[in-house]
Design brief:
Tetracycline Repressor, domain 2, Arc Repressor Mutant, subunit A, mainly alpha, 10 helices, 2 strands, 5% strand, two-stranded antiparallel ribbon, 2 domains
Length: 214
């Protein structure tokens, strides 16, 4: 990226495909500030320092940019979930280890929602089916999307004999819906009035409930 003078103002020029990721980054910043409603293609272009017409060469309209930011948000969420698993101490017992890894997936999901409410809301703003949340671009640094990390954890429970195989089909959707419900209530529902310790307590109780239920 280089700067050029134009009427006394500096304007960024992008080459070799650098403009598209820059626009997604600007859109992500807008989403952090105000959720999916705050993503405006012209504003993203302004923040990057290019004319709106340049942005339209990469995104046909606002919806396309929102979709790209949503995918980036899903990737960040998957990274947070994976980091939660990576932070677990070594647990020699395979059953306890599997249960801890399963629980940490939900803990990472809740942590991302609370830390990045704008991105969390954006992540699901345009996803019309489950395949959209598992596409390669939605994966974190492990190469696994959030729903795949949850599926892996459930498969590990089956492998250790903790979860009966006949109860495995569809289990990820039950666990996901439960955790997502608390996350949504805590960031934009009536539970947003609770303080951090109260939400921490509820999160722990919910994860305990899912662990026992599974």
């Amino acid at each position: 990226m280089t700067g050029t003078s134009d009427g006394g103002k500096r304007r960024a020029t992008y080459r070799h495909g650098a403009l598209k990721p820059a626009l997604i980054e600007a859109g992500t910043a807008l989403a952090r500030e105000g959720g999916p409603e705050a993503i405006v293609l012209r504003e993203a272009a302004r923040r990057v320092g290019v004319a709106p017409n340049a942005a339209y060469t990469h995104f046909a309209g606002r919806g396309a940019l929102v979709q790209a930011v949503a995918t980036a948000a899903l990737s960040e969420m998957a990274a947070t979930m994976a980091a939660e698993q990576d932070a677990l101490p070594e647990i020699p017992d395979p059953v306890r280890a599997a249960r801890a890894r399963f629980r940490s997936v939900g803990a990472g999901y809740l942590r991302f929602a609370r830390a990045e409410p704008g991105l969390f809301r954006t992540a699901f703003a345009t996803q019309e089916d489950v395949s959209a949340v598992a596409e390669p671009a939605a994966a974190g640094p492990t190469g696994r999307s959030g729903i795949e990390l949850l599926g892996d954890a459930l498969d590990e429970l089956v492998a250790t004999g903790t979860l009966p195989a006949e109860r495995r089909p569809g289990a990820e959707f039950l666990a996901w819906a439960t955790v997502h419900g608390l996350a949504t209530l805590a960031i934009e529902g009536p539970l947003r009035m609770l303080d951090e310790p109260q939400i921490d307590h509820l999160s722990g109780l919910l994860l305990d409930l899912i662990d026992r239920g599974i």
